[in-house]
Structure formats: C-alpha cells, structure tokens
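for the recovery benchmark. tokens below, seq after
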C-alpha cells in the first residue's frame, strides 16, 4: 500500500506530504484545486515522462517520493531479478531537474524509467474514466478468471514447465541444425582432424624446439664465449681464482689486527668456492654444446609441420591447434552420434508436452468452474450500482496449441441494456458503465487475491443519488481487501471513506499553492454538507451529512 507521498516543486505544489490509510481514502475539493495534480505527481514515480514546464519553480528540481508497504505482495523475486534491495518499506523516488534530466531510485538504488514503471505497475493501479481500460485486454480478462479460479500454484507450475519446454524446443532446433551441418561437413572435418592428429602435437613443444634450434645454430659462438669465461676464471695468465687466492693470503695475515677483516676473509673464501663451482658448470655446458646437423634438420622439419598447420588454420600457437582439434572431434561426434541425442531430447519433449497438456486441461476445468461465479457476482454488483439490466458472458475458447498460460483464450462479452446483443465491452459500454464494470470486477478479484493499491480518478461521473451510494458501498467493500484512493465529487461516496482528504488552493499570499489536509469528523460533516448544497450549507444539509457519515459508520 501507499503509506506516504511527498511532492516538492510540481505544478501548484511547492512542498506537500500526505500519509494515506490502508482502507478507503477519499480526496475531495473544488474543480481545479489540484486533486489531479497530485495524481500527476504520483504518476512520475510510476515511470511516466515528465515535462519541466509543470515545475512550480523553474530554478529548482522537482522531487517526488512515495513510501510503500509491500510485505504481502510477493515481490521479492522481482527485486532479486533486478538486483534491488527488497524492503518491507520500499521507497520510490524521482528527481527531475529544470533542464529535463531525470533520475529515478528504488530504495536509493538508481534505476531506469522502464524498471520504475514495471515496479510501479505492481504497486499502484490508476483507474480513470477516460483512460484506455485494461478491461478490454485479453490478458487482464484471463487474469480475472484465474484469480477467481484460485489455482495460482497450478498456474505457476504450468508456466515454469512451459518455459522449460520452450527452451528445450529451441535447443532441439539448434541441435538438429548443428547435426545437419555437421553431417554435411563431416568429410571436411574428418580430414582436418586426421591431419592434426597425425601431427601428434604437444602443448609447449614449439617453444622448446625453437629454443633448442637457436642453441644448435649458434653452438660455435656459444662454445667460444663459454671457453673464454672459463679462461678468465681459472686458466688465463692472471686468472680470477689465482688473484682471489692471493687476496685471501693477504687478508689472513691481518685477521689478528681487525675482527672485521676476519669476517671479510671468510666471505672471500666463500666467493672463491662459488667461483670454482661456476667455472665447473660453464665447462660442463661447453662440453655439452656442439653442432648437430641431423638434429637441426629434424627440428626444422618438425617446426615446418607446426608452422604450416598454424598458417593453414590462421592460428598462432600449438595450444590453439589443440583446441581446434578438440572442437573438430566434437563436431565429428555430433555428426556420428548427434541423432541419438536428438531422439533422446524428442522423447523427453513428448513426455513434457503430455504433462503440460494434462496441466492445461486442469486449468481449463478450473476456469470453466469459475466463470459462472464471475458472471453472477459482476452482474449482481452492477445491479447494485444502477445497471440492473446488464449481462456479462465469458467465452472460454481453445487455442490451436499450448500457450504460456495454458490452452485457453478468454473473451468478455457485455451488454448494459436489456434485449441488446452481447459484444466486446469497448463497443457497447459508455465510459461511466465501463468504470462501474471495472469497479465490480476489481472488487471481485480483491476478494480472491492480493491487489496493489487502486486509485479511482472520478470514475463515479454520471451517477448520483442511490446509485452513487451503491458505488460507494462497492468501493467500501473493495477497500476491505486492499487500499483504495478515490477522487470524487459525490457526498455519498465521500461519506464511506475511512480517511477523508480535502484538496484546496491557498491564496493567502502572493502565490497560489495547492494544499491538502486530512479532515476530522466535524470537518468531514461540513465538507460533505458543502458537497450536498454549496459553500454555505444550511442545518438540513449538515444534518444530511451527519446521517450519511452515521450510516457509513454503522456499515
């Protein structure tokens, strides 16, 4: 439910905050006072486009914030799917700057307008007499039937299985296409695979071979440099080892004079030992380094095979070639064994389709049983609202194949007058009749399932007297199951509310402001009396207002 609405810098509103009750909330006020402005501001946090020309002050940004209590609406999956924090008290906020730039937030997380609109549709249903009514939408009509049928678990199970079935059906088509292509290219794939397999490639061999070839091609130069190093260390006219021995001898005679020299003497002896080891290793490498023409030819032949394969397949490494070999192996296996996997999936799909058909039949059975109740309840409610000659007929037709909601297609046919042919509602009902029809339907849905907040914007137009009172009773009944916010000019409806808000223009300063206040009982009596007889109601109007409120309290 909408717990609180804050509006800043929008149209005639500089700064306004409203806290709504959970039942029936009524907004009244003179025409032009700003009731629809409040709805316009609310629509901004429901994802509607904004225009800066509606700003109260062009130098400031417009900020609309709505606090919603959403604990019982099972919306956690929606929040999880969209990476939003799910809070029992959720805040939707919209900020629009004077240059038209807009930002939207859900619990302080930035979101785009599309996501804000999707969430808003799950929280608030704004219903206007002049709006395009969802009542003519086949999806909404099916929702009505499903709500009364009360098979949400069955429908959810069907939808999950249907999504899986469609996904597997698409996968089957992909497998068939891949198998057919693999069969057509089998000989080509097999030739390429055989060529790679015959090469006997090993990961990392190219780098090792290239390094070995470089060494063999430069063996003489390497040997010369190694021998030169050994000569300088131990075999030359003044080898490094000989000079280090002399240095050690000189230091040994100084140890007794300076302890630091003793430490340096030991370090120098360690370096000498290390230098001997280095010379020995260099000699070993030099002895193992030699020119091997046969090995050079063998390595070049092997590298030529690798380079040829890389060039042919436009790849850079042996690892890439091995990856291609694995890929070709899979394609060959798919061509050879793909039919087995396809047949297995076909059998599974046949079983899944059979299960879906059984679930669809159960859905059809439940919907068929629910239809008479819907027809009777809606017609009875319309009768209470002055449409006693109304007829509602719900057709349940079968689709040619399974759909996301079963195999049923629903169509509502309606007539508001006796003796007239039933037809689609948009063709035979006036705006006022459609509004009362929607009220009757939503009242029925609300008695079977949780609905979001519903807002009625003057849908009571065209009714008066006892019919208006009956419309108020229906709204009151509807508000027992969900939050209802209604803008009305009818005292009969205003008297039914649990919370009554008065919207008015404040002209006390140089600038006109739209204000709103929640009326206490005495203020409600006066406001309803004014709605009955004008700005200066007499005692009879006041008494009539008291009676209307008293009757509402009794009910």
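predicted aa per position
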């Amino acid at each position: 439910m909408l717990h609180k609405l804050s509006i800043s810098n929008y149209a005639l509103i500089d700064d306004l905050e409203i806290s709504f009750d959970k039942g029936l909330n009524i907004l009244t006020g003179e025409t032009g006072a700003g009731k629809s402005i409040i709805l316009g501001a609310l629509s901004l946090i429901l994802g509607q486009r904004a225009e800066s020309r509606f700003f109260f002050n062009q130098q400031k940004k417009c900020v609309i914030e709505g606090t919603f209590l959403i604990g019982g609406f099972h919306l956690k999956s929606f929040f999880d799917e969209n990476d939003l924090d799910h809070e029992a008290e959720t805040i939707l906020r919209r900020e629009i700057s004077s240059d038209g730039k807009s930002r939207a937030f859900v619990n302080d997380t930035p979101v785009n307008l599309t996501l804000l609109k999707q969430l808003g549709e799950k929280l608030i249903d704004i219903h206007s007499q002049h709006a395009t009514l969802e009542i003519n939408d086949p999806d909404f009509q099916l929702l009505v039937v499903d709500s009364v049928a009360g098979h949400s678990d069955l429908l959810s199970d069907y939808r999950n299985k249907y999504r899986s079935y469609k996904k597997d059906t698409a996968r089957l088509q992909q497998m068939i296409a891949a198998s057919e292509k693999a069969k057509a290219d089998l000989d080509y794939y097999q030739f390429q695979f055989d060529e790679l397999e015959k090469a006997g490639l090993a990961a990392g061999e190219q780098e090792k071979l290239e390094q070995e070839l470089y060494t063999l091609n430069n063996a003489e130069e390497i040997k010369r440099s190694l021998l030169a190093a050994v000569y300088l260390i131990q075999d030359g006219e003044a080898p490094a080892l000989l000079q280090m021995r002399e240095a050690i001898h000189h230091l040994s005679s100084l140890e007794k004079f300076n302890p630091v020299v003793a430490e340096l003497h030991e370090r120098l002896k360690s370096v000498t030992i290390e230098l001997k080891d280095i010379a020995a290793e260099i000699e070993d490498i030099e002895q193992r380094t030699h020119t091997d023409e046969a090995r050079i030819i063998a390595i070049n032949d092997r590298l030529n095979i690798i380079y040829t394969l890389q060039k042919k397949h436009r790849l850079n490494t042996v690892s890439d070639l091995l990856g291609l070999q694995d890929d070709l192996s899979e394609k060959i296996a798919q061509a050879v064994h793909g039919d087995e996997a396809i047949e297995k999936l076909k059998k599974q799909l046949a079983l899944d389709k059979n299960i879906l058909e059984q679930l669809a039949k159960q859905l059809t059975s439940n919907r068929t049983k629910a239809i008479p109740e819907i027809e009777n309840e809606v017609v009875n409610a319309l009768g209470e609202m002055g449409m006693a000659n109304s007829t509602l007929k719900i057709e349940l037709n079968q689709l040619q194949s399974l759909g996301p909601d079963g195999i049923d297609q629903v169509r509502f046919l309606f007539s508001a007058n006796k003796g007239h042919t039933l037809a689609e509602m948009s063709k035979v009902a006036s705006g006022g009749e459609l509004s009362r029809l929607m009220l009757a339907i939503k009242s029925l849905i609300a008695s079977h399932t949780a609905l979001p907040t519903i807002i009625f914007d003057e849908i009571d137009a065209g009714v008066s007297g006892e019919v208006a009172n009956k419309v108020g009773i229906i709204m009151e009944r509807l508000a027992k199951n969900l939050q209802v916010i209604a803008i009305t000019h009818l005292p009969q409806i205003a008297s039914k509310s649990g919370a009554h808000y008065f919207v008015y223009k404040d002209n006390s300063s140089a600038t006109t402001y739209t204000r709103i206040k929640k009326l206490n009982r005495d203020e409600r009596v006066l406001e309803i009396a004014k709605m009955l007889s004008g700005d200066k109601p007499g005692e009879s109007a006041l008494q009539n207002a008291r009676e209307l409120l008293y009757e509402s309290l009794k009910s």
